[in-house]
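Curious: can you check?
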Amino acid sequence: MNIEALISKAAGEAVKTLYGMDATEKMLQLQKTRSEFEGNLTLVVFPFVKAAKKSPEQTAQEIGEYLVQNCTAIDKFNVVKGFLNLSIGDGAWLELLKAIDADDHFGIVSPSGDDRGVSPLVMIEYSSPNTNKPLHLGHVRNNLLGWSLAQIMEANGNRVVKTNIVNDRGIHICKSMLAWKKWGNDETPESSGKKGDHLIGDYYVAFDKHYREEQAQLQAQLVEAGMPADEAAKRAKDEAPLIKEAHEMLVKWEQNDPEVRALWEKMNSWVYAGFDETYKKMGVSFDKIYYESQTYLKGKAKVEEGLAKGLFERHDDGSVWADLTNEGLDQKLLLRSDGTSVYMTQDIGTAEMRFKDYPIDKMIYVVGNEQNYHFQVLSILLDRLGFKWGKELVHFSYGMVELPNGKMKSREGTVVDADDLMALMVEDAYKTSMELGKFDDMTEEERREIARIVGMGALKYFILKVDARKNMLFNPEESIDFNGNTGPFIQYTYARIRSILRKSEELRVKSEEFATAIPSPSNNAQPDSSLFTLHSSLSEKEIELIQKMNEFGAAVEQAGKDYSPSGIANYCYELTKVFNQFYHDYSILNEPDTDKRAVRLMLAKNVAKIIKSGMALLGIEVPERM
């Protein structure tokens, strides 16, 4: 049962009966009554004043009287200027609670693929790691946002394909390969005891260290020879022996040199094994993984095709460019003079492969805001090349993650490693729970599993509760807190409710009897006034809790429209706060009135259900006990 829809329909009938006006759906939208006024839902009557030919107050009064007489969901009303505040009767709230209880997937719209039609297919790209280093804190935010967005889009009735594009080629890959070849002494993940991605990352850092030393030496020699310092620095950067060797290796790779390719495949296999382990710990996965080594040639071919059609132009040096000046932008390089591709070319190739693999209706790229211009250009180019979703692609642009001590730099080895971060969070959750006595009467195995759930929940919630568009400061110490707007606070509330329900075996039977006593609701049915006899009065906190639960579907829908995991996080926090305020004021198990006790058990049960469902949209598990 949708109370808002029911009242909105009745309000439309009121306006038609009273004033002969056919009100649009937009005119009849209800909003939650402000806390300083009595009521649950408010109807703004200003759109009807002209047809009524009366003041806003008189119009609201007449509509309110009509609704009390003709809509049994409405118990009473009050008027504040042009605002009609409606108080919903207890019977309607009880029927709504029953409807929530009866729906195991309340608030979630399942994708359709039957006679109702086929749901839109949304492809979401996230992660996009480089195979020259392990995943770090920035990747953590990317992966968590991408995974959560996929769950939210699916909960809004879309079919979703989760994809990853692995940057497995290019000069940065050759840097790690060259460093391992020079200084690796055949070291492997097995011989070193390191995860493969960590091992390769160490060699990327080693390359940068030696490269900087070579630059400094060469720059000093050039300055000593009389070259200006700025020019010497640029020359040293381009002509240091190590970087020239790395470029030569890249050319050999593109020429399919057997030795270089064999080394590349071996080292990448180590990295992929490491990535898989990290993704598993993080709780994310993909339906399809693409590799730039497979897409860049497709991109080059697509650019050449566009060139032949006059969509692009070739300059005298052989490079290929897209002229975007008519779109208010500049010219964009697509192929270098030596024929090698750039990131834009690779993205075009990846789009070509994806479009052939899937009938995509919407494409969402989860990529940091430093790439805003890139995706603005990509959208124009894909549209020119005939991709139906190119013009409307979505760049889910998110801000950077910083630490209390500053930014991260991969080449200098100062990043916060994703594996280390997750291990730290789990260990902190374990220590904090032990100190607070939340692990009493548990086996060590149970403690470790709950610490994993709480630690990862703290990490995910802390990152996802922030508006994705904003830069954020991540402080692990603040995230492990069992009070306030944190993951553990919500998880602990869920575990508390589950504990209450476990203690109420006999009372749950009563709750089921109560549920049976209420007629099964239908979408169009008016609330049955006989429900008043079952439970004559609901408290303000109980009504507030039912109303907040009823907002879950709207929160999911809005999060899908806004591409906003933070909207779900904030809803879960608000619901948890409302429940804890209710639980502070009203007893559940010790309530002597059996009907009231049954209602409160049903309230608690469904709050837990919605918390679990909402947190799942964030990729967060909730423990049965803490």
In short: The two ends are 34 Å apart (CA to CA). The chain has 23 helices and 16 strands.
